[in-house]
């Protein structure tokens, strides 16, 4: 049987992005986690468990970002962690990582529009959220269809505005004046009701504060200078998120009772309502909507790049490897993923959608740790030019491995069925790939792009 053609001609992606766009992509995707989702940590671990989980997971992401930035700063193609898996671990691992990335971002995109719908319905019970969900996804998909530069430039603006609204809320509480402050942590918080096990359980949703910051690596091929834009944009973005996450926990925990905060669909907006100040309520309404749209916008970008990269390499049918002749975007991949995100959004199950997105991300992180060891083995320091070098290797990888294990344990405590479902799904997908797709891959061409730009590895 003839091998399927997997080398359909596709134009290269436009190299137009700088550090500001990588920041906008990473922070734009993640910032929504400060407007919703993170507060489930309070339900799982209590108020103190929530903030300890936040700082612990922040350490995990520092490690992940260091590893991703070192490997991503020298990657010759789009695809981020997928491309890393392609060169470090081979076709099967690359297929799984690519699929995990697509579903991670498709689920996150669905969660974003779910929150948009719920916050609109909160204004008036007669408001129907479905038309707004569909319209939001259509508009954002069209923007990504037209071009990445304008899309991420807009993302920078709306992400910055959303971030500023968090501090409008903070200063409206007069937190700096003990006599006037609205913040009352002693009354509103509930400590550590489930003990240390509650901290581990809370780590699952603490991931939501940072999930997606590593996605900047997916735009590596479109950077004017990958070795500059990727490290600078990602590191600044992570610093911004650390500040924003701590501020978010402090304000929400001081304004909203723990039992209500732990189940809110939009905790920052609820905190704004608790101030009773109209300008703050309006600001956080706008900020929540903008954060959700910026995140969904970035998710469309990242998911389509992963799907495009998989198609270009023949891991899925080559029809999605075509780029637009005018806009130089992976337009087929962008359009194809739209109904998938819509389907997840229509379920209305926010915590389930969030959980599957987090599980997919954690699986990518597990493989990232393995890839970091393989990368240093194949390309020791001094054998290939890096835009960034992760310090004290292998310490970051080992710390990340321990924290990933703790987070998965926390997920198992509350969502073990979801974990089993996720494992079953990726297992069946792997069987399909091995039985139906692997035979179409020309292994002599699979790594061609990389071997043309990288020196020969020390060890294969």
TrEMBL record:
<dbReference type="InterPro" id="IPR050367">
    <property type="entry name" value="APC_superfamily"/>
</dbReference>
<feature type="transmembrane region" description="Helical">
    <location>
        <begin position="128"/>
        <end position="145"/>
    </location>
</feature>
<feature type="transmembrane region" description="Helical">
    <location>
        <begin position="152"/>
        <end position="176"/>
    </location>
</feature>
<feature type="domain" description="Amino acid permease/ SLC12A">
    <location>
        <begin position="28"/>
        <end position="418"/>
    </location>
</feature>
<feature type="transmembrane region" description="Helical">
    <location>
        <begin position="415"/>
        <end position="434"/>
    </location>
</feature>
<dbReference type="Pfam" id="PF00324">
    <property type="entry name" value="AA_permease"/>
</dbReference>
<feature type="transmembrane region" description="Helical">
    <location>
        <begin position="87"/>
        <end position="108"/>
    </location>
</feature>
<feature type="transmembrane region" description="Helical">
    <location>
        <begin position="20"/>
        <end position="40"/>
    </location>
</feature>
<feature type="transmembrane region" description="Helical">
    <location>
        <begin position="278"/>
        <end position="300"/>
    </location>
</feature>
<feature type="transmembrane region" description="Helical">
    <location>
        <begin position="196"/>
        <end position="220"/>
    </location>
</feature>
<dbReference type="InterPro" id="IPR004841">
    <property type="entry name" value="AA-permease/SLC12A_dom"/>
</dbReference>
<keyword id="KW-0472">Membrane</keyword>
<feature type="transmembrane region" description="Helical">
    <location>
        <begin position="387"/>
        <end position="409"/>
    </location>
</feature>
<dbReference type="GO" id="GO:0016020">
    <property type="term" value="C:membrane"/>
</dbReference>
<keyword id="KW-0812">Transmembrane</keyword>
<keyword id="KW-1133">Transmembrane helix</keyword>
<feature type="transmembrane region" description="Helical">
    <location>
        <begin position="46"/>
        <end position="66"/>
    </location>
</feature>
<protein>
    <submittedName>
        <fullName>Amino acid permease</fullName>
    </submittedName>
</protein>
<feature type="transmembrane region" description="Helical">
    <location>
        <begin position="232"/>
        <end position="258"/>
    </location>
</feature>
<feature type="transmembrane region" description="Helical">
    <location>
        <begin position="356"/>
        <end position="375"/>
    </location>
</feature>
<feature type="transmembrane region" description="Helical">
    <location>
        <begin position="331"/>
        <end position="350"/>
    </location>
</feature>
<dbReference type="GO" id="GO:0055085">
    <property type="term" value="P:transmembrane transport"/>
</dbReference>
């Amino acid at each position: 049987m003839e091998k399927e053609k997997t080398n359909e001609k596709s134009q290269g992606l436009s190299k137009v992005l700088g550090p500001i766009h990588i920041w906008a992509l990473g922070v734009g995707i993640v910032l929504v986690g400060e407007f919703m989702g993170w507060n489930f940590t309070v339900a799982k671990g209590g108020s103190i468990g929530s903030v300890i989980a936040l700082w612990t997971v922040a350490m995990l992401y520092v490690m992940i970002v260091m590893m991703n930035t070192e490997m991503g700063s020298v990657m010759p193609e789009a695809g981020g962690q997928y491309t890393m898996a392609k060169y470090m671990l081979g076709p099967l691992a690359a297929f799984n990582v690519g699929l995990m990335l697509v579903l991670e971002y498709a689920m996150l995109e669905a969660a974003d529009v779910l929150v948009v719908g719920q916050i609109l319905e909160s204004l008036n019970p007669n408001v129907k959220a479905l038309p707004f969900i569909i319209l939001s996804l259509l508009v954002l998909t069209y923007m990504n269809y037209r071009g990445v530069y304008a899309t991420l430039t807009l993302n920078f603006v709306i992400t910055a505005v959303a971030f500023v609204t968090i501090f409008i809320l903070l200063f409206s509480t007069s937190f700096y004046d003990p006599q006037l402050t609205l913040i009352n942590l002693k009354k509103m918080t509930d400590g550590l009701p489930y003990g240390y096990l509650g901290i581990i359980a809370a780590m699952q949703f603490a991931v939501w504060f940072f999930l997606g910051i590593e996605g900047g690596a997916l735009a590596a091929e479109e950077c004017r200078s990958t070795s500059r834009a990727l490290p600078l944009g990602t590191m600044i973005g992570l610093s911004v998120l650390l500040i924003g996450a701590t501020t978010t926990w402090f304000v929400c925990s001081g304004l909203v009772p723990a039992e209500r905060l732990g189940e809110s669909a939009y905790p920052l907006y609820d905190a704004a309502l608790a101030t009773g100040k109209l300008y703050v309520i309006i600001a956080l309404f706008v900020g929540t909507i903008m954060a959700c749209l910026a995140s969904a916008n970035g998710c469309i970008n990242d998911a389509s790049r992963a799907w495009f990269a998989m198609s270009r390499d023949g891991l899925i049918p080559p029809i999605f490897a075509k780029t637009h002749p005018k806009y130089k975007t992976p337009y087929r991949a962008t359009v194809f993923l739209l109904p998938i995100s819509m389907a997840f959004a229509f379920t209305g199950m926010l915590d389930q959608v969030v959980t599957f997105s987090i599980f997919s991300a954690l699986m990518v992180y597990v493989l990232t740790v393995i890839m970091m060891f393989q990368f240093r083995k194949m390309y020791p320091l001094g054998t290939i030019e890096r835009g960034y070098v992760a310090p004290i290797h292998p310490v970051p990888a080992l710390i990340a491995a321990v924290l990933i294990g703790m987070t998965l344990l926390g997920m198992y405590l509350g969502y073990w069925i979801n974990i089993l479902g996720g494992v079953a799904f990726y297992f069946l997908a792997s069987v399909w790939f091995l039985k139906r797709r692997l035979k179409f891959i020309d292994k002599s061409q699979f790594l061609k792009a990389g071997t043309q730009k990288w020196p020969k590895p020390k060890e294969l």
